[in-house]
C-alpha cells in the first residue's frame, strides 16, 4: 500500500493562502473599516498634547448669550469685536460665522461690519457647504459680496463624518463642480503666513467637469490635541467689553465661533465621542495646529495597504510550524496585540493612515487555521492507517481460514455510502418536485381562468375580484412556465430562427408599449439566424425583458432591442432609459422570487427574470444586466449553434 506522505508543506501553503485571503479581503473590501476607526480613535485618546499658546478661541457661549441677548446679534457687535481684536494685535482673525444674508433689523450694521473687516485686513470668513435635505443637492453658501471683498481670504468649514458618525478628517480642497475652496484652516494659515510649503495655496486642477457634484481632493486625518475644551477659550462678551489683559491676542491666531449648545456645529470626534461633541470652531483649531505642525495624516495608497496587510498576515507562519501548541497560542496572542499596537501608534508616529484590520483578522485566525490544518492532517493520517489495518486484517484472516465476518467495518466508507444514497434520493426528490410543481401550476391555472371569465360576465359588481384573480392566474402561469423551463431537455431542441423569435416578441409587446407611450425600436438583421432551441421559451424570455423595459421606460422614450452576432454567440440586448437599478439589487435580480429591490411592480410574481435566467442556461447561455440612472441594458447571450449553410 502507498505510504501517506507527511504534508507539512501542503499545510503551510493552505494556511498561507487562507491568511492571505483574510488579510487582503479585509484590507481591500473595507468591511473591517469600523475596526480600523476604533483603533485610530484609541490612538487619539491615549496621547494628549498641550494646546498651542498662540491659538485662542473667542467663544459665543452660554455666558455671552445671557449677557448680550438672543441670537442673532447685531453685526455692530461683530464689528466692535473685530476692531478690538485687531487693535490688540491679532495676527489673523478667523470668523467661523456665516454672514450670507443682509441683517434686515439694522441694515447699516452690514456696512459697518464690512468696514471693520477691511480695516483689520487679516480676517478670514467661511464658505459653508450644506444640503437643504437628506441626500439633496449640496450648495455653497458664501458671505455677502461686501464681506467677500473686505475679507483677506475665504475658507471652507465643511466636515464630512465617517460611516460611524465620527469626524476624523478633512479634505484640503472641496467645492461644488470643482475643488475650488481650501479648508478654513488653510485660509487662516495662509493669511498668517504660516502655511507649510507642502500644502498648495492654489486649488488643484478641476479635471473632468462635474456640475452640481461635490468634488473633493486630498483627504487628510487629524492628530487631535485633546478632548473638547482643551484649546484656550475666552467668552465673546468678555472680549467685547475689553475684560482681558492688553496684548493677550498679540501675534495670535484668533478663531471666533459658537460653542453654546444648539448653535453651530457640534461634532463627535475620536477624543469626544457622541456624549461630549466638539464645537466646530475648536475642531478648526485642531486642524490648524495639525496642519501647521505637519501632523495631518495622509492615506496610504490602496496597493500599499493590501501589501502591508498581506505581509503582516504571514508572520505567524515563522513560528507556528516550529513550536508546541501552547507556545504557538501564546505567540499568536502576543502577535495580535503587537499588530493592534502598530495600528494604534502608526498614525501618530509617522502621520500615515495604514488600516491594518485585515492583518489583525489574519493574526486572530492564524492559530485556529493552523490548528485546523494540523487536525485535518491527523484525521487523514488516522483514516489511512485504519484502511491499512483493515487490509492487513483481511490478509491475516484469509490465511487463517477466511474469517472475514469478524473484521471491523470501515466507518468512513459507510458514511460515503450513506452520502451517495442520500444524493441519489435527493435527485429523485428533485425530479418529483418539478413534476409536482408543474402539475399544481397547471391544475390551479384552469379554475382561475374560468373564474376570471365568470367575473367578466358578472359586470361591475364583481370588478374588485378581477385584480386578485388576475394576479393569481399570472402567478400560476409563471409557475407553469418556470416548471417547463426547468424540466426542459436540451436534447429535444429543434432548429429555430432567432430573428423570427425576436420580431414575434416585439410584435407581442407593441400594445403594452403603445399604452405607455413608449416606442419600440428594432436593430435586427434581415437574414435568419438559426440555432437549436425552444421557440416558445425563448419568445417568452425576450417578451419578459421587453415588457419589463416598457414598464419602467419614461413615456415618450424608446426601448431598443438589438441582436449582435459573434462567431460563438448571439447577444440579444434590450435597452431602456428608465430610472435604473441599484447596484446592490443587481446581484440578486435573477434569483427566484427576488423582488428586485423595488424595480418590479407590487403585483409582480418575482419569477419573470428568474425564468429568463433558466431559459438562458438551458440554451447554454446567460443573462446579464448593466444599469445606471437613465439607462438599463439586459443582455441575453445564447450559444450560436447554427445550421450549416447549404
Summarize the structure.
By secondary structure, this protein is of the alpha/beta class. It has helices spanning 8-29, 33-46, 62-68, 75-87, 108-120, 145-150, 184-192, 236-240, 280-292, 302-314, 325-350, 357-400, 411-458, 466-486, 498-516, 535-552, 583-586, 608-618, and strands spanning 55-60, 92-95, 123-131, 138-141, 153-156, 169-176, 181-182, 214-221, 233-235, 253-258, 266-267, 278-279, 297-299, 352-353, 494-497, 519-523, 530-533, 558-565, 569-576, 622-628, 631-639. It folds into 4 domains: 8-32 and 303-377, no CATH class; 45-295, no CATH class; 411-484, no CATH class; 491-639, Histidine kinase-like ATPase, C-terminal domain (Heat Shock Protein 90), CATH 3.30.565.10.
How do the strands and helices of this protein lay out in sequence?
Blueprint: H1 8-29, H2 33-46, E1 55-60, H3 62-68, H4 75-87, E2 92-95, H5 108-120, E3 123-131, E4 138-141, H6 145-150, E5 153-156, E6 169-176, E7 181-182, H7 184-192, E8 214-221, E9 233-235, H8 236-240, E10 253-258, E11 266-267, E12 278-279, H9 280-292, E13 297-299, H10 302-314, H11 325-350, E14 352-353, H12 357-400, H13 411-458, H14 466-486, E15 494-497, H15 498-516, E16 519-523, E17 530-533, H16 535-552, E18 558-565, E19 569-576, H17 583-586, H18 608-618, E20 622-628, E21 631-639
Parallel strand pairs: 1-9, 1-10, 2-3, 2-10, 3-5, 13-14, 16-18
Antiparallel strand pairs: 3-4, 6-7, 6-8, 8-13, 11-12, 15-17, 18-19, 19-21, 20-21
Helix pairs in contact: 1-10, 1-12, 2-11, 4-5, 7-9, 10-12, 11-12, 13-14, 14-18, 15-16, 16-18
Amino acid at each position: 500500500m502507498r505510504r501517506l506522505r507527511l504534508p507539512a508543506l501542503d499545510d503551510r501553503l493552505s494556511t498561507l493562502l487562507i491568511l492571505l485571503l483574510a488579510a487582503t479581503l479585509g484590507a481591500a473590501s473595507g468591511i473591517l473599516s469600523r475596526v480600523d476607526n476604533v483603533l485610530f480613535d484609541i490612538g487619539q485618546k491615549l496621547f494628549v498634547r498641550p494646546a498651542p499658546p498662540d491659538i485662542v478661541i473667542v467663544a459665543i457661549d452660554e455666558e455671552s448669550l445671557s449677557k448680550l441677548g438672543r441670537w442673532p446679534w447685531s453685526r455692530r457687535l461683530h464689528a466692535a469685536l473685530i476692531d478690538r481684536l485687531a487693535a490688540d494685535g491679532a495676527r489673523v482673525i478667523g470668523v467661523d460665522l456665516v454672514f450670507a444674508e443682509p441683517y434686515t433689523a439694522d441694515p447699516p450694521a452690514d456696512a459697518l461690519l464690512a468696514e471693520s473687516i477691511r480695516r483689520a485686513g487679516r480676517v478670514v470668513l467661511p464658505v459653508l457647504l450644506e444640503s437643504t435635505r437628506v441626500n439633496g443637492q449640496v450648495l455653497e453658501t458664501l458671505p455677502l459680496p461686501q464681506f467677500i471683498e473686505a475679507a483677506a481670504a475665504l475658507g471652507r468649514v465643511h466636515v464630512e463624518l465617517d460611516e460611524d458618525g465620527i469626524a476624523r478628517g478633512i479634505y484640503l480642497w472641496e467645492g461644488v463642480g470643482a475643488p475650488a475652496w481650501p479648508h478654513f484652516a488653510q485660509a487662516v494659515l495662509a493669511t498668517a503666513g504660516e502655511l507649510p510649503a507642502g500644502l498648495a495655496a492654489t486649488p488643484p486642477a478641476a479635471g473632468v467637469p462635474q456640475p452640481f457634484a461635490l468634488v473633493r481632493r486630498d483627504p487628510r486625518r487629524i492628530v487631535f490635541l485633546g478632548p473638547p475644551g482643551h484649546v484656550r477659550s475666552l467668552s465673546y462678551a468678555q472680549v467685547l467689553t475689553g475684560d482681558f489683559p492688553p496684548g493677550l491676542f498679540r501675534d495670535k491666531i484668533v478663531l471666533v465661533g459658537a460653542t453654546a449648545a444648539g448653535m453651530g456645529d457640534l461634532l463627535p470626534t475620536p477624543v469626544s465621542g457622541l456624549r461630549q461633541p466638539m464645537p466646530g470652531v475648536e475642531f478648526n483649531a485642531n486642524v490648524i495646529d495639525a496642519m501647521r505642525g505637519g501632523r495631518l495624516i495622509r492615506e496610504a495608497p490602496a496597493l500599499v495597504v493590501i501589501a502591508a496587510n498581506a505581509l503582516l498576515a504571514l508572520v505567524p507562519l515563522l513560528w507556528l510550524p516550529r513550536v508546541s501548541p501552547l507556545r504557538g497560542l501564546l505567540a499568536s496572542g502576543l502577535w495580535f496585540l503587537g499588530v493592534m499596537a502598530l495600528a494604534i501608534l502608526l498614525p501618530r508616529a509617522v502621520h500615515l493612515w495604514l488600516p491594518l484590520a485585515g492583518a489583525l483578522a489574519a493574526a486572530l485566525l492564524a492559530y485556529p487555521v493552523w490548528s485546523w490544518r494540523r487536525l485535518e492532517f491527523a484525521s487523514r493520517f488516522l483514516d489511512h492507517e485504519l484502511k491499512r489495518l483493515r487490509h492487513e486484517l483481511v490478509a491475516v484472516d484469509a490465511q487463517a481460514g477466511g474469517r472475514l465476518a469478524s473484521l471491523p467495518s470501515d466507518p468512513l466508507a459507510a458514511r460515503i455510502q450513506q452520502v451517495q444514497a442520500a444524493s441519489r434520493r435527493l435527485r429523485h426528490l428533485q425530479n418529483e418536485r418539478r413534476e409536482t410543481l408543474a402539475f399544481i401550476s397547471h391544475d390551479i391555472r384552469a379554475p382561475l381562468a374560468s373564474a376570471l371569465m365568470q367575473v367578466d360576465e358578472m359586470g361591475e359588481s364583481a370588478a374588485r375580484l378581477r385584480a386578485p384573480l388576475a394576479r393569481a392566474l399570472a402567478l400560476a402561469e409563471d409557475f407553469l412556465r418556470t416548471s417547463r423551463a426547468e424540466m426542459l431537455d436540451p436534447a429535444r431542441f429543434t432548429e429555430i430562427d432567432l430573428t423570427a423569435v425576436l420580431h414575434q416578441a416585439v410584435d407581442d409587446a407593441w400594445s403594452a408599449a403603445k399604452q405607455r407611450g413608449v416606442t419600440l425600436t428594432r436593430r435586427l438583421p434581415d437574414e435568419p439566424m438559426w440555432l437549436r432551441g425552444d421557440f416558445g421559451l425563448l419568445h417568452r424570455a425576450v417578451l419578459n425583458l421587453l415588457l419589463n423595459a416598457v414598464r419602467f421606460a419614461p413615456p415618450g422614450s424608446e426601448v431598443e432591442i438589438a441582436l449582435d452576432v459573434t462567431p460563438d454567440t448571439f447577444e440579444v440586448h434590450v435597452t431602456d432609459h428608465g430610472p435604473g437599478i441599484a447596484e446592490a439589487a443587481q446581484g440578486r435580480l435573477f434569483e427566484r422570487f427576488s423582488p428586485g429591490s423595488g424595480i418590479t411592480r407590487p403585483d409582480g410574481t418575482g419569477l419573470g427574470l428568474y425564468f429568463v435566467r433558466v431559459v438562458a442556461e438551458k440554451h447554454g447561455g446567460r443573462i446579464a444586466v448593466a444599469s445606471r440612472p437613465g439607462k438599463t441594458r439586459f443582455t441575453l447571450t445564447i450559444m450560436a449553434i447554427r445550421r450549416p449553410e447549404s
